[in-house]
UniProtKB/TrEMBL annotation, chains A, B:
The lineage of its organism: Bacteria, Bacillati, Actinomycetota, Actinomycetes, Micrococcales. This is IMP dehydrogenase. Its cofactor is Zn(2+). It holds the Pfam family ADH_zinc_N. The keyword Kinase does not apply. It comes from the Bacteria. The keyword Lipoprotein does not apply. Residues 8-343 form the Enoyl reductase (ER) domain. Belongs to the zinc-containing alcohol dehydrogenase family. Keywords: Metal-binding, Oxidoreductase, Zinc. InterPro entries: ADH-like_C (IPR013149), ADH-like_N (IPR013154), ADH_Zn_CS (IPR002328), ER (IPR020843), GroES-like_sf (IPR011032), NAD(P)-bd_dom_sf (IPR036291).
Length: 345, 345
């Protein structure tokens, strides 16, 4: 089959690789119909060392079940399913807590062992726990929005849920990428009153306004912090959703959070150490939360909202390309010419 | 009056200083009847630079109101009051949120401008918002427990509340000092099922068991983490209450916290930067919270529990000395010969 491999920074190609096969009786094989490029795919695109064997890429997918392991009971061949970026058994102690990304039998896609979604076919481990069936007959026009339930929209939702967004809260969203815009939409859904989107790309922040942002702050650093404080009566925001992952975004977050407020991170931190002492978090009783989105735990609740048109998170896709043009998809996203590119393998 | 001044590391003396006076119409002056030495007083005791003018010490007090500013309406001369370690107006946006330590008109005791409690008299700023009256006729035997409501018990309580301790949760308390033991008692009050106290001083951990600890782990570092994991079925604890403030305690905290769990810090961090990335907090969706205890926000609720004997947090005091022997009090606590020393000025 054709699959996307990254051979080093900036070097993404479609290659012919072996088809995935059932390895464990809990596996399923799907034919990928919809995949996409994630903002986090750009991290290796910037800094992956030379990898002669190629790193499989992609962790968001919708596909059709082609083959099932002997132990899979909830899926049928021919089902169209959403596959979250992390697989999980749905039964372990952490899955029962809703922390599906820490499943004891779980893991993440786009590794050599697990395969990846920017490809024609995918092995889905723990298929019963992982895949969610889309009702037969669902209109093709809903697929982009359904695809966002594999990662980007529910990552924004995770930020908002872990941050404790609720009616009447003031929320700052840092980052106008697809995750940041998803966080705006999720915060709106959860009843946030004031939603301040920090970003400087007008085409993106315009979509942010349509998703529910009440204010846009283009300034960064101290200026950006001052602007948010001004918009919140000098008090700061109850909740800050950090959808970038770089240190300046984190610094912005603790600068704008209200005493007693919460910073919720879903941008994968590109740092390990950060300020957490008296001068940053501790002194104002700020809470730091977030992590890899527990997409699977939210998926069944979110599905009907997409199917009935309550939310349209697929609007983050502004381009669509065939798998063979995956390199162009990465280029478009890296250069910010595209917000998020949908791929049809 | 006589007051405690610290002139440098290890150098604590009682000196004759001017009596405090009403500065703002919202002030009260109290005659301090009960004060004590806090674990956090040991930080400057270890590292205060030479301070020829002396630094006033102490931030926990019970006292009798001697004089009131013109705007104070809720107190009367002769009232016996508890004074929390931070003063607050009780009316600003942050006080209304319960984050009284971030009060816009508030501040902390033991600074030159605000005075300190290891002294015969104290100026209490924002007296209406700050001081809480102890009912007339309260038995003297309850005073040690009531004194803990100015800081140490309610700091443990703050850790437990911010950490989300509730029925059925597993809790690890790091530190067997007076705050750690208070955190055990508070966690027990909030319904924690398993309470694992990490500490190695048997006389202290014995009191911890009486306060509600179900297990004691004396091991530290990797060994201590392994022991806690063993006690929690390999899963880690829902809530970790960190009552030390040094980096090894923080490292222990993220080592033992369960995926999706919460680390709540009340030990004043003696560091600004710490691990918060994928390998420590983010990867397992751990939450980091805590800060200076919002004692005042809990005080009215805790008072009846002490008065009716439900809790006896004053058991953390194992020594009592007159003000003139304050240097000995510091020495006893620093050498760990005493857990916490009550001072009678």
């Amino acid at each position: 089959m054709r699959a996307t491999l990254m051979y080093g920074a900036g070097d993404v190609r479609v290659a012919e690789v072996a088809d995935p096969t059932i390895v464990e009786p809990t596996d399923a094989i799907i034919r990928v119909t919809h995949a996409c490029v994630c903002g986090s795919d750009l991290h290796p695109y910037h800094d992956l060392e030379a990898t002669p064997e190629g790193r499989p890429m992609g962790h968001e997918a919708i596909g059709v079940v082609e083959e099932l392991g002997a132990d899979v009971t909830t899926l049928s061949v021919g089902d169209t399913v959403i596959v979250p970026f992390a697989f999980s058994d749905g039964t372990c102690a952490f899955c029962r807590d809703g922390i599906t990304t820490s499943c004891v039998h779980g893991g993440f896609f786009d590794a050599l062992e697990t395969g990846a979604t920017q490809a024609e076919r995918l092995r889905v481990p723990q298929a019963d726990g992982t895949a969610v069936v889309i009702p037969a007959g669902t209109d093709e026009s809903l697929m982009p929005s359904l695809l966002t339930l594999s990662d980007v929209y529910l990552t924004g939702h995770h930020a908002a849920v872990r941050g404790g967004v609720e009616a009447g809260r003031s929320v700052v969203v840092i980052g106008d990428g697809a995750v940041g815009l998803s966080a705006v939409l999720a915060a709106k859904q959860l009843g946030a009153e004031t939603i301040i989107l920090m970003g400087r790309h007008a085409s993106r922040t315009d979509l942010g306004r349509e998703f529910g942002a009440t204010h846009v702050v283009a300034e960064r650093g101290e200026e950006g912090i001052a602007k948010v404080l001004e918009l919140t009566g000098g008090e700061g925001a109850h909740v800050v959703l950090e959808a970038v992952g770089h240190m300046p975004a984190y610094e912005q977050a603790y600068g704008v959070v209200r005493p007693g407020g919460t910073i919720s991170r879903v941008g994968v931190p590109q740092y390990e150490e950060a300020p957490v002492g008296f001068a940053s978090l501790f002194g104002k009783n700020a809470t730091l939360t977030g992590g890899p989105a527990t997409v699977r735990a939210y998926l069944e609740q979110a599905l009907p909202l997409v199917l009935d048109g309550t939310i349209e998170p697929g609007r983050v896709f502004d381009r669509e390309l065939p798998l063979d043009e995956i390199a162009e998809a990465y280029r478009l996203m890296d250069s910010r010419e595209a917000l998020k590119v949908l791929i049809r393998p």
